[in-house]
Write a structure and sequence with these properties.
Elements lengths: L5 E2 L2 E2 H5 L1 E3 L8 H7 L31 E11 L2 H17 L5 E5 L4 E15 L9 E11 L5
Antiparallel strand pairs: 1-2, 1-5, 3-4, 4-7, 5-6, 6-7
Length: about 150
């Protein structure tokens, strides 16, 4: 789990006990979200009434639109108190970033995304928090990448 996801130079497994997970065994939602290319901005055409179709520049410059990336995390800790502390720290870390920005690095993909936190639309407890012992949860976090990595 170590060195798989580095956010603002912090290994999320070592620092928080967090890691990327999938909805089901064999799922690839995270990889799909990370690797889906951004849309491109639309090209401006001129629609002249007396001509068929539209006219576009002879050279079309391709520029990317910003994109949203939703990642599915899980967080694990050996105690209820530790889990509560690390979960709150991790969510706060994602919201605050460095002046609001997060550099999420995926060493195995040789990819870094510069994003900011948008929301955490789902949370799923994997253990019963009212009892002491090992605790885990999974949750999704939506990020915005204003200048897409591709």
């Amino acid at each position: 789990m170590q060195n798989l996801v580095i956010i603002n130079d912090k290994d999320i497994w070592t620092e928080f006990g967090a890691f990327l997970t999938e909805e089901k065994k064999g799922g690839r939602e995270n990889l799909t979200a990370i690797m889906t290319a951004s849309k491109v901005k639309s090209h401006v055409g001129v629609n002249i009434r007396e001509e068929d179709g539209s006219k576009y520049s002879t050279k079309l410059e391709v520029k990317n639109e910003e994109r949203d990336v939703t990642l599915h995390f899980a967080l694990f800790n050996k105690s209820r108190t530790g889990w509560l502390l690390k979960y709150r720290e991790f969510i706060s870390f994602l919201k605050q970033g460095e002046n609001g920005w997060l550099n999420i690095r995926f060493p195995e993909l040789e990819l870094t995304m510069r994003v900011f936190y948008v929301e955490s639309p789902t949370y799923k407890p994997l253990t019963y928090l009212w009892k002491e012992g090992v605790h885990a949860s999974s949750f999704k976090v939506k990020f915005r990448e204003p200048k897409p990595s591709f």
